[in-house]
Amino acid sequence: MVSWFKSKDLTDGNTWVSSVGSYTGSRNAGSIGVTSASGNGASGSVKYMYGNTAATFNFGNVVHSSFTLCTLARYSGVNKKRMFLGGSNFLHGFWNTYPGVSHYDGWKTPSSPNANYGQTWGAGSGTWIAQCGQNSNNIPYSHTSNGFYVGTTTGGNGNLNLGINHNFNGGCCSEDDSDFNVAEVLLL
Per-residue pLDDT tens for 136-149? Predict the structure, then answer.
């Protein structure tokens, strides 16, 4: 395990210390808060950090050359573009109002939620999404979204900083920002 940013370890929106390894994520811009709430697919209370499109957060160089990335997050508010960014064109979990998708310098899932893969939430959904993706393993097991196998291909570059609302690697799309709630980030 490389890092695990647990919701129980959230104290404020300025830093988030991984319970594994020596990583500390940090707010780089805007205002990020921490709260707890239920609903949006969660039967109990979920502790999470939240921010709008002006807020950026850097988890550091946690995406290694071979990786598995799992997040528990959701869209909030009206701005629903990319949330987790890295690499030249790397997105995880959220894109263009669609939750449950991944693009690691190429689509690794369908580009929109697909009922054929069990994804019954639609565009703009504020449902909590447990998204896991890896750049190795067999299709369709390389990607899951809320427990459904959604992988269509394998691959993707590693050795990246992972960010929210900003590509700290200098790649594209830092302007495609989202209003976000993030509860967990795990990297293997």
Answer: 888 878 999 888 88
SS3 for 59-84 is EEEEECCCCEEEEEEEECCCCCCCCE
- pLDDT above 80 (res 164): yes
Instruction: Give the start-to-end residue ranges of the domains of the chain.
Output: 3-187
CA distance 99 to 92: 9
DSSP 74-141: EE-SS--S--EEETTTEEEEEETTEEEEEEESSBSS-SS--GGGT----TT----EEEEEESSS-TTT
Q: What topology does CATH give the domain 3-187?
A: Jelly Rolls (2.60.120)
Query: 119 vs 92, 125, 180, CA distance in Å?
Result: 16, 11, 20
Question: Model's pTM, two decimal places?
Answer: 0.94
- Over the stretch 13-51, which tens digit does the pLDDT of each residue have? 999 999 999 999 999 999 999 999 999 999 999 999 999
Backbone angles phi, psi at 28, to 5 degrees: -110, -25
CB 123 within 8 A of CB 98: yes
